[in-house]
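quick one before i forget lol
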Amino acid sequence: MTSDVILRVAKLSKSFGAIHALREVDFELRRGEIHAVAGENGAGKSTLMNAIDGIVQPDSGTIEIDGQPVAIASPAVAQKLGIGFLHQEIALCPDVSVAENIFMATTNVSRRLLMDYRGLHRKAVDVFRQISSIDPATLVKNLSISEQQLVEIAKALTLDCRVLILDEPTASLTETEARVLFAIMRRLADRGISQIYISHRLVEIFDHCDRVTVFRDGRNIMTRNVAELAPSDVVNAMVGRVLDSLYPQKQRPEERSEETILEVRDLTERTRFRNISFTLKKGEILGIAGLIGAGRSEIVKGICRLEGEVSGTVRLYGKELRLRTYQDSIRAGIVYLSEDRKGDGVFLDLPIAANVSALKIEQVANRLGLIDRARENAQAERLGAQLNLKCGTLAHPASSLSGGNQQKVAIAKMLSVKPRLIFLDEPTRGVDVGAKAEIHRLLRQLVREGVGIVVISSELPELIGVCDRLIVVREGEIAGEVDADGMTEPAIMHLASGTAPQEFAA
């Protein structure tokens, strides 16, 4: 790594109405470095990246590439300047193949009259050899969210760029796939390609980045070498206060109960999972771990009757349920928080209050069956206060909120039906460290109030920090169970992959 500056931002400011997203921000990226950018949702990270990529235009300030001032009017201009952007949100065309998605930009500028599908497939195979075994001929709509994220990464790797921005690229990846990505990032850095790495996962920043810049309230709070800092320094700079712990105290001995909230027996879906049996006890948070494609989400969606033709037995508090649709599940008191926040978690164009009431509109309806706005707003205010939701007004669309606050709206929607059991799929994906701690505390509070909680997460530290017990899924079957005393990353990965624990302990 050299000290040469390839990208310099000086006194950059940007406002959206009364909201000051950036306040005279200075930022430098050196040639060949991996530079982490950290901060809570709404701190200004995304606005700065969007300005560098030409998605938004700053109100004032300058951007330089290799010492030359540039006007980046659009992402196309940014790409010509050698800037690539791997966005957190999936932006793929679902009805065409993986290969066509990866090379769409180069295909658009090609003068060929006919598509060279065989050539695209061959090039895509070469790209994916570094990352995954996904078949490039597969239609994107047939891939899981995590597999789509791998396609986005492959697409970014094909760009001939000098600066690569990666926004939460590991949010949907398992530990194994994330390690592959980090190895690729280091190879790119060795070739002189500079990278801006946005992540809420501090362990990734400290393991793989050279410097870190922390944003708060639209300002650059600090830029330091990672080697000079402790994780607590970054967290405290992000939140502007000392944060005691990301995870609340786990289940105490006196809180243990033999009462069973959920009992699942021999749950089977012909193509996705087989003979799934487990229980959830009152007072505990149960985690579900496993590699991408193992069947974690599919099992939970099968229980809730969101997808698949399933057989087997599901009992809630000892009563066997006859569920045919997700509405049956909601009526029984079982709800599911989707891993795809933008696709299934919130309705981006609807007001915040309407999002909160969406699962059970009859709760806020009057005698004529029409929505009572006052009742709807009162419900949203109550649940928003419980979750410490930060928003302008409840009439604003959900799209106006930061990622962390959108997730709180999705959780408020679950709580609005007074559930007895909540399945949470990647509950803190793309959420800043402060909001993560709030969500974790809420889960423990709900458990102590008698609500059943099951958490699916690709982030092993989160599962270990939050859950009292884990079941591990491998290839559509339960590979084993891990209790609190044996909850370590090597033990979980051993069960998830079938590989010896010592390989991961290293």
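fyi Residues 381 and 394 are 8 Å apart (CA to CA).
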